[in-house]
Structures are given as C-alpha cells and as structure tokens.
Amino acid sequence: MEVDIRYLCTAIGGLSGVPIRIFERGELTFFYSISKLPRDPMNVYRGEIFAVRDHVGYVTTRHFHCYGIVNSGELKIVIGPTRQIAESDRELRELAFRADVPAEETDAFLAGMKGIVRMPFEGVLQILCTVNHVLNGEKLSLTDIAIYDAEQEKMAAAQERKEAERRLSSAPEEGQSVHNSFDQEQLILDMIRKGDSAALGEWKAAAPAIRGGVLAAEQLRQQKNTFIVTAALVSRAAVQGGMEVEDAFSTSDSYIQQCEMLTAPEAVTNLQYRMILDYTERVGRLRRGRQPTRLALDVANYVRRHLSEAITAQELARALFLSRPYLSRRFREETGETLTDFILREKTEEAKRLLRYSDKSLTAVSSYLGFSSPSHFSRVFKRYAGCLPREYRGKYA
Asked: What are phi and psi of 218, to 5 degrees?
C-alpha cells in the first residue's frame, strides 16, 4: 500500500499540535503547523538534525526543545520543537535572535512558539515509533530508544558485580588516599559562592594535583565525566551565591554540551577552568559588595533575565513589589550605583559578548537588547565601553 506521507504528517501535526516537516533529499517539501511561526526555529539546529542518520532519532537543544526525526530512504520527517515545561520570554527571545527573526516579527514569533502544544519527551518518542512503523515497517517500542525501569535491574546487578570485584581486588596501602579532591572542591565552591575571581586566580597559580577517582577506563571519557560532575557542583554553588536556578542550570547544560564535542583531554581541562571562572564572575557581578543584600541580588537577577527587553525602573520595582523611589534609593545606598547605570552597564556587557562571539548585525544586537534605535545603542555603548560598537567588534571579533 502506498503511503500518503503528507496526509500522515498533516494528521500528526493536527493531533499533536507540534510543527512537522518533510524533507526530500535535503530539501523542505512540506511544513505543517497549527501555530503560526514567522521563521522556523528548526533552522537554528539544522546541522545537528540532519546529522541524525538512524531510522529514529532526536535532538535536544540547549533550551530543552526536542526535535524528533524519522529517516526513510531519501525522506526525513522532523517534528518539533516542543518541551514539557513552558519557555520563558527570555529563552524565546534568544531563540528568535539566533533564528534571525526580524525585530518587527519577534512578538509574533514568541506568540507562535507559545502556541505549540507542550508534550513530554516520551510523547515525542511514541509519535516517532508510529511514523517509523508506517514508513520503515519496524515495530519499535520506547524501550528500544530510551532507558526505562526494565533496564534499571540490569544496571543494578552490573553495579553490584563491579562493587564486589572492587572489594575483592587489592586494596590501597594503609594511609594512602585514593581521593584527595574534597578539600579542594570545597575551597573552589566557596570562591564561586562569594564570586571571588581574584582568589580563584591565585588558587590556579598554585593549584595542587587532584585525585578525583577513576570514572572511566579511557582518558578522554574520564576528563568528560569529571567535567560533568564539576558542572553539577559549581552550578549549585552559584545558586547558593545568588544566581537564579534556571540561569545556573542552563549555563551548566551549555557547558556540558560544549564538553561533549571536544576531542582532547587538555581541551576539556581548559573548558573546565573556563566554566568555573565564568560562574565565579557571574556571581561576582550579581553580588555587589562583599555582603550583598537580598534586594541587590533580586535586582541583578531580574536585569540578567530581562536583558533582551527595554527595562525600566518602574517595571523592575513592580516586579519586586516595591515603589520605584524606594527601590532606586535603596539600590543606590547599598551598591553606590544608580539603577539606570546598573541596567545599561549590564546591557553593554551583554552587547560586548554578542559583538565578539556572534555575526549578528549591530542593528540586530541593538534590537535584541531592547534599545529604541541603533543610534541610542551606540551612544550607550560608547558611554560604558569607551568606544563605538563597530570599533569594539573590529578590535575583538
């Protein structure tokens, strides 16, 4: 029986509420979505999606959007994006920026993304199994492409065998420590919690050799596993230092994804220090003064979460359930800086990052950061960075 692929995809898209596409020999030939999207966000991750060659696969993005993929000969079916928990406006604005959505269409893009039906990861896998059965004649179940309780018993048994082997093998000599990492971990985590970049730099200059245990049989995998454990520890230390939970964990996810793409142990080591320093600097920017108040931390986190918007003192005060005059006065008393200076300085720092590490136009960066015009952006940038945006990009990009 000949399958009407477009009819099948239209039915799936309508029932699931998630965008679906058909590619033939790499060319898009069909797109269906009940939610109107000015630009297809899939294009941001096209390379990763097209790298999937198995009959059934998926890609999870840095913002936890899932794209499901079914391959059949020259056909590629892609469903997504969707995720179980709704995105924040900040995440969607960043996605719009990466997808080259024009400023005048950004609000429509955000509305379209919010209109996509939320679906758990398992739901996407179930759709993939169904489409794969129709196109490739394979009867796969979720256990074929994900880990479930049935696998846990096997894993438990394997771990028990490994533990028994370890106990029966030769033990370390008396007084010899296999792990010496705990004290150094606590020292580093304390620096992160305080946002003390200077102390971290001094520690690096005389860092001792650390034995953290054997986590893998192969050196590169050992380094990556250690990196993942470190990411979990430092992200939580940053939260204790005042960083928002979502920001801390999203940053951790991004670093882990970068780590997995590296091919040399020394590159992993360098990225690990970069991650620790990054978290320390971020907490340091949040913690105005040695003993920052809750108010200062709340203001800093709000600004960091809303950098892509035109932040006003009135909106910030409303979000913190305070009056604008009271907030402005208290913030200046506690930090020695006005709210306006703090907001614009943070936007300038974000602009530096975008100018240096992205190829987006100055107009796009200006619009993304919520400035009223490129000329306004240039004036603010020169005031706080000491040069024009174009000059900064020419020097550092």
From this structure: -115, 140
